[in-house]
Structures are given as structure tokens and as C-alpha cells.
């Protein structure tokens, strides 16, 4: 029962509020992969938005009411995600979705490693404790990806469909027992910083975030250094002007000019290095961002 694993308390609370907990409390969930493939391969929707398919020699008909009765979840709440977006604040705060949210809770519409705008909208809705009509969202998602051919065609809801097959008495055989590792591995939980690793070292995600912050810091430090050099140059110019006005020896003026020229050269070199640092930091930051979001 992954929902009871260490570090899953927050997710468990979100699921409990939606009254979905029983869907994730199965100790050894069973997957019927061949039957799930048949389910999606033969799927079609009629004008009344009722799902029709064939699994083996069994005709399967599903609508929101039937799926609600099978899954035993509430029918209230958000029934569609078409055209829905999360708030800008949430998008900024949530730069990544942890793997357990992306792979277990949320309906998928693209590659599993990419958080879509729909994912973010649903995640924000969960965090705001807004009711979600799971049967309606599942059927809409199936229609979108299978009938409308929008998004990646994949095998979704395999464990929920086991309940559907059982309820409708579809002949499915023994199936495959899913282990905790197949659902969400401990390494995934560590990487997502839901639990601490045994070594006590930073996770890959924390290392990437630290690198990102360091890349942003380097150009700032060089910019500050260039600013200091500019101030020194201004002071030298003032000294040269003062020396020329008060009429000291030409050697003193010459020495000041040489120091000013050297300082100018140093500043020019720093500015070139700063440009390269910005370019390098941008390249490395782009790489880190890709690592953080994939």
C-alpha cells in the first residue's frame, strides 16, 4: 500500500479529501495488460458519450454513472479540463511535479516525464481541495486520446480497469501482480525528496537546484567586480585631473595615467569574461532546467 509509505502523508491527505483512498489501499494490485490493450484498441464512443468496447468475448459499456458505481467515488466537482489552466502563481511555484503525482494520481495526456498544463491545473485543484469528478475526467481523457487522437496513446488506469473487469465479470485470467517498486520506487521517493536517503547525501534533484543557483550567482559576482573596477577608474581619472590642475610633476601624471590604462585593460578583460560567463551560465542553466523538468 504505497499510500501508507513514509513521506506520502501529504499525498494521502489530498487523496483522502477526494474520497479516493480505497483505490490506493490494495496491497498487491493486479494488472491485466492484454485485456487493457483490448479495452483501448476496440474503444469507441457513441453520440451519448457512452464508451463501448470489447474485451475478449465480453461487450463493455461505460458512462460516468456506471464508472462511478464501480470505482465508488464521488461524482461531484470538476468534470472537464478542456481549456483549463492553472494560475501563474502556481506555475511559478510548481516548477516540477513529483513522480508519484504524475504517474499515479493524475490522468496522463502526454509523455510521462512531462508535466502538461492539464497536469498543473489538476494538481492545483487538488492542492486547493477542489472536488474532482474522477469518472468524468477519466472518460474525457480516454475520448481525447483515443477518439480525438490528441496526446500520447498509452495504457492508463490499468489498476482501475481491473476493478471494472471484476465488476463486469470480464474473463481476464490471473494477471500480473504489481510491486511497490513497479508503482513508485524508493529511489523515486528519495529523488523527489519525499523521504531521506540512507546515505544522507543530497538527491540528484537537490544537486541540480544547487548548481542552478550557483550558475545564477557567478555572473552576479563578476558584475559586482566590474562595478568596483569602474569606481576605481573614476577615482583615478579624478586624481589625474586634479594633478594636471594643481601642476605636479609630469612623472606623477604619467604614473597615474599608466595605472589608469592598466585598470582600463583589467576592466575590459573582466567585461569580456562576464559576457562569456553569462553565455556559459545560460547554457548550463538550460541543461539544468531540462534535467529538472524531465
Quick summary:
Helices cover 58% and strands 5% of the residues. It is mostly helical and 294 residues long. The two termini are 26 Å apart.
Plain-language structure description:
The chain is mainly alpha-helical. The protein has two domains: 2-199, no CATH class; 205-293. Helices cover 58% and strands 5% of the residues. The chain is built from twelve helices and five strands. It has helices at 9-17, 33-41, 64-71, 88-93, 99-105, 117-127, 134-147, 158-167, 180-183, 186-191, 204-246, 250-293; strands spanning 30-31, 44-45, 51-55, 58-62, 176-177. It has a three-stranded antiparallel beta sheet with strand order 2-3-4. Strands 1-5 form a two-stranded antiparallel ribbon. A hairpin with a 5-residue loop joins β2 (44-45) and β3 (51-55). The longest helix has 44 residues, at 250-293.
Give the SSE map.
Elements: H1 9-17, E1 30-31, H2 33-41, E2 44-45, E3 51-55, E4 58-62, H3 64-71, H4 88-93, H5 99-105, H6 117-127, H7 134-147, H8 158-167, E5 176-177, H9 180-183, H10 186-191, H11 204-246, H12 250-293
Antiparallel strand pairs: 1-5, 2-3, 3-4
